[in-house]
Amino acid sequence: MLIDYFSRVANNNDWWNVGIELISIGLVVYWIVDFLEGTRGERLFRGVILILVIGVLISNLLVRQFDFPRLRYLYKGFLIGVLIIAVAAFQPEIRRVLIRLGQPRFWAGSLHQLSRTVEELITAVTELSAARVGAIIVIENRVALGEFIETGVRIDAKVTADLLRTIFHPGTALHDMAIIIRGDRVVAASVQLPLAEAGSIGGVELGSRHRAALGITTGSDATCLVVSEETGIISLAKDGKITRNIDESALRKHLTSVIA
Length: 260
Hints:
CATH topology of the largest domain: YojJ-like (1
CATH class of the largest domain: Alpha Beta
Helix content: 55-70%
CATH superfamily of the largest domain: DNA integrity scanning protein, DisA, N-terminal domain
Low-confidence stretches: 104-109
Distance between the termini: 53 Å
Number of strands: 9
CATH architecture of the largest domain: 3-Layer(aba) Sandwich
Number of helices: 11
């Protein structure tokens, strides 16, 4: 039956139309999977696509081969049900798309906003450093950190120095563990990160925050900022390597390349 199906497509005079349609569908599916990468929605979407593809092939082949009108009717109802379930299941992702579409940076870029985010980050870590308040801030890049975001508390708020100081203030509910930033948004706080093996840099033993920074940057392309609670030193981790006591100029240069 599969051979017969593909032979009909091959013998179609408008095969190039079919090719364009298939490429267009493939690009749309790729964009959706790329957008959902690292979230629970990605696994759900893959499952839905698999069910639909198998269902369409089997349904079309059986209906054309044996003329099962009731099967066709039931399958149409099944597709409507899948659509309704998908809308409910993908509600967070749909909301995320609409928010991004409504933001000016989606169309015209946001150099000004992202530059402001960099300055807010620098202000926050500088003030946390002066007050010797421990902090660990993860900046997501191309590799999605959805599996880690799920371990924390969702926030979805614009990055501001006041917000970061409030989150890491000792005694607050979310001050422990890490926050994750995506673009100009704090997406989650109190996030559990993987710890690298115990070790030392320059003879100084690494604490849990620095080990977490190494752990998350070893397995992804994220950038991680760490403020030491004991010394107030600001460190930057990238690609499984950590730079301690980074100054404001170097920090601004690196964050600008990562965020803006």
